[in-house]
Amino acid sequence: MKIETFAVGAFQENTYLVIDEQSRESVLIDPGAEPERLIAAVEKSRTTLKAMWVTHAHIDHVGAIAGVKRRWPVPIHLHPLDLTLYRHANTQAAVYGLPFDDPPLPDEELADGDQLTVGTLRFDVAHVPGHAPGHVMIHGNGVAFVGDCLFAGSVGRTDLPGSNGAHLSRSLEVITALDPATVLYPGHGPPTTVRDELQSNPFLNGTARILA
Ligand SMILES: [Zn+2]
Ligand SMILES: [Zn+2]
């Protein structure tokens, strides 16, 4: 497995290109902005893009979907509880005054307990609401893509429409129950591990509380 990271757009959102080196198949997780750059990265990887997996439907995570889908008509996977945010992504963008390319509707519904595969790699889906109602974590092979639930040293916002602090607290318990060595790839900023966050993240070591 190879993971390439691209911090894209005004929010420097992390888009991940996950490559199965055996089959040379790949997926994009959270294609958030700069579709031309992501398309060039897929082409440079000499892999076949198989799907787009979306952790949640905030604009910074979905803004390149339309452009990528025009290049390769691969299925878009999203949890149905984020469909309302997804459909109104252009309204979210207007709030920030950002140009926005409306994504086509998802092709596949993600659900807690689903398995996703790319080539020979298998991942599990966990529903981790709180930052967004249909937020998912995609984990396996020693890594977890946690979107905006958790960052190195911080946690996701819960003051947005559809956010819920109590739900995020429960979701963080799900994430931190993973093997301590699991490498966490967040929606923004550098990767970290479950062990490091349990020790030093103020929201997980008892120093700070999430406001519901
Ligand atoms: Zn978000
Ligand atoms: Zn984000």
How is this structure best described in words?
It is a single chain. This protein is of the alpha/beta class and 212 residues long. The protein has a single domain, classed as Metallo-beta-lactamase, Chain A. It has helices at residues 35-45, 59-62, 65-71, 83-87, 89-96, 165-176, 194-200; strands at 2-8, 13-20, 25-29, 48-53, 76-78, 108-109, 115-118, 121-127, 136-140, 143-147, 150-151, 154-155, 183-186, 192-193. The strands form three sheets. It has a six-stranded mixed beta sheet with strand order 1-2-3-4-5-6, with helices on one face. A six-stranded mixed beta sheet has the order 7-8-9-10-13-14. It has a two-stranded antiparallel sheet with strand order 11-12. Strand 3, helix 1 (35-45) and strand 4 form a beta-alpha-beta unit. The radius of gyration is 16 Å and the shape is globular. The mean pLDDT is 96. The chain binds zinc ion (2 copies). One zinc ion binds at residues 56, 58, 131-132, 148.
